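cron nightly-structures :: item 1 of 1
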Amino acid sequence: MSEPVTERRRSASLVRLGLTEPWSEQTLARLGWWRDGKPAPGAEPVMWALARAADPNQALRALERLAEAAGKGWSACEAALRADVGLRGRLVSVLGASTALGDHLITHPDRWSRLASDDPEPTGDGPGPAERTEELLRAVGGDPSAPAGAARAELTGQDAVQALRDAYRDALLDIAAADLAAVCEPELPVLSVDVVAGQLADLACAALRAAHAVALAEVLPADLPPGDAPRLAVIGMGKCGGNELNYVSDVDVIFVAEPADPVTTRLASTLTRVAGEACFPVDANLRPEGRQGALVRTLDSHLSYYRRWAKTWEFQALLKARPVAGDPELGAAYAEAITPMVWAAADRDDFVAEVQAMRRRVEEHIAPEHAERELKLGRGGLRDVEFAVQLLQLVHGRADPEIRSPNTLAALAALGAGGYVGRDDAANLAASYRFLRLLEHRVQLARLRRTHLLPAETDTAELRALARAAKLRPDGRRDAVGVLLSEWRANTKRVRRLHEKLFYRPLLEAVSQLPGEALRLSEKSAARRLSALGWASPEGALTHLRALTGGVSRAAAIQRTLLPVLLEQLADTADPDRGLLAYRRVSEALADTPWYLRLLRDEGAVSQRLMFVLGTSALVPDLLVRAPEVLRLLADTSEGAPLATRDPAEVAASLCTTVGRYDDTAAAVAAARSLRRHELLRVAIADLLGLLPEAGVCAALSEVWSAVLRAALDAVVRATPGEPRARLAVIGMGRLGGAELGYGSDADVLYVCEPIGGANEHEAVRWSTGIVERVRGLLGAPSPDPALEIDADLRPEGRNGPLVRTAESYRAYYAKWSEVWEAQALLRARPLAGDAELGERFRRMIDPIRYPEGGLAAAKVIEIRRIKARVEAERLPRGADRATHTKLGHGGLADVEWTVQLLQLQHAADVPELRTTSTLEGLRECAEAGLVGESDAEALAAGWTMATRARNAVTLVRGKPSDQLPRSGRELAAVARALGYPAGGDPGEFIDEYRRITRRARAVVERIFYDS
């Protein structure tokens, strides 16, 4: 620093010291620290301290302001800065890191002397909690020698607030100065984050005690004997209770009083006001009933509430409760009574659901624009550590008092020592937690604002100051900002990884045959942890984990790596027990598939999606073990991914082409089944993941069914010896004809034939019947896949009539014997397979029957209504709930479909647009034609869509067709999740919405169909 002579060299020297402002040289000269382009004699230590400050320019400007404010007293301060390493480190570090504390010093310039060293080798140890209490009590005129909780202040009102504010800010300055001192003077001691957090908590307790003394003076008569004073205990919660407070934070408290009357309520509210105006906001919302509850309660009232009404999260909060101010005996009695309840919380029936909800709330409260900068709530943030530690404490603290500390780092160390967390994992998690807390402290110190956000990456000046305040320096490859961002990302990534591992890795060690750490979870502890995380049968889950991870094979090793993440993903599903069983089945079935575990390990989206569908659906695992190749589709998360965008018509064409290559009939049908299985699984997964709208689901299921029918019919015809004796067409009916199939729907069809090659009608029918029976037998053969059942009961004369008829026979029957319900059934008839020209002629032949000229006679309308009423009365299963039966219930599928079909029978002859087999399309055309109001059409469409979605979801969840919604339990929760309702929400919200939508649809049905 002794060389520069030119103006250019002078400025370059200062820039190297971090003093980049054009006024810095003049300011240094005025302060006497820069002369002739170099540091003045004796000023080098001050210059080096400035160079190391978080923001050298800010520190220099603050020193200049302090000099102006101190006036004649500055000379003593300046001399001490040159000579006293402790003062230099503390003062310059604070001024470079915190504008708010700098303003406090400039407002009270004599306070610099608080930072001077009494000891030539300062240790950094600060005053203890008793000394802090004495200092703040004296500031408000309280007697520190009075019994705890009985001291009264001499100052009241704004005089007390101002005095307490100054004393609190002075003490905060002491702590921050000791915390930051090593930034500018590396030989000074470095305080750990937990020491600083403990000192801040001690200071908060002292402030609450001083505010309590002011409240006593303001509320109680001066001559009231001490024995007659009401008793008020202040219980510290949150970080204050855990002795780990931030620089700027709300202080959470609960008030306990004897008696709980207007006087103690005034005491508590006055304390809250005084502390809030002077020091920090006091938050009493963790009290029973939250902000709606009484501010103060007696001990008995607290206990009564916690026994009867408290939620699990309230016991989690009480884990950190400790008396911090007021009446010490009452506070101790509260702590003694509450403690057993806290450690019994994991036995509560709602523990799992509440724990899951708490876990989700961690990330739900993050504003999207802040997600990447959140130190507290973001993925891998402070809350991840705190929640993980608290949950492990609640689960295992019932049986182990050693892990019951309210302090996060102390509890984490105890969990490691007790074997509930690996020792290395506990040490690494604690290191990352300390780093994140350090950044949080430095961010808050800058302006003494309550924030948990890193500066934006575009704000390099603030990031650089933060990095330097955290003693992060360039490493040769990266500047300080680069080091900060790299360390931040590495630590959040490590926290998230360990957060996942904390819950699940010890479970695997508990069941693995491989040697674990010296201390590890017992199977009993592992079962308790699984129960807390949502498994209804922890013992069964442990059995599955043994099977998956046992042995020394490569697959077992990969499973041990995968399962911590997979188990966490399963814990978020509606039925983790079923999901883990399904995962075991799939893993065992695919044990010889070389890419299966590699795909799960390397593609995060695959495991996340797979665990969700396995924990939700019973249908998917059965299909997956027979169509594992679909798993590969889960890896593609792009917008046009084939999982959700395959064209049903292309799928159908590809199926028919593939099956057409087989000469053997059985092999052809087996190929058709295999391709259908693949497509059914693809659609089911896309549906569960919310990637496929309901119309797309129905269209895909209908097209693949039609394609299987076409392919099987063609294969049987090809394999039948001799010349064909008839043309044969298959006509789709019902939901198949309307392209509205669900996962559990039968295929309703009619078979129509026509003689060829000189055959007579009898020969044509006999030949066609043989073909049809062969197709039905092949498709209906037993199979682990969902059934391929063909239903021809809608044919003339029903089950008693011939299976196949000629087109002329159909014509004669419909002309002479047809009833109105048959005309209604024909509304959804469309050719699907076989001879296309014959199918088209059949369609034209039935048009006059299903679209009658002149509409429908009144008597036939009445007949349709009568049939519908009989169906509602007779076909609803015994015990079914009409409000939640998707097919025959009020506002369900039958209601909407019969209403649309009645309108088609009445008006399709005159309105050709109504001639569609689709329910929703027919409904839209009815609205376009003015036959139904827009709002009525919307209500009917909403009811039909909701019932269709719910019916499909029930089939996916149960693995078999069902029209009745579950009434409660995990099945209902799984159906709600399958329909896109949020995890951890109340599935009753889905039932309420279903009933609301179908009730509106039923009201329209009553008005339009029943003309009521």
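cron nightly-structures :: done
Confidence is low (pLDDT under 50) at residues 1-8, 513-519.
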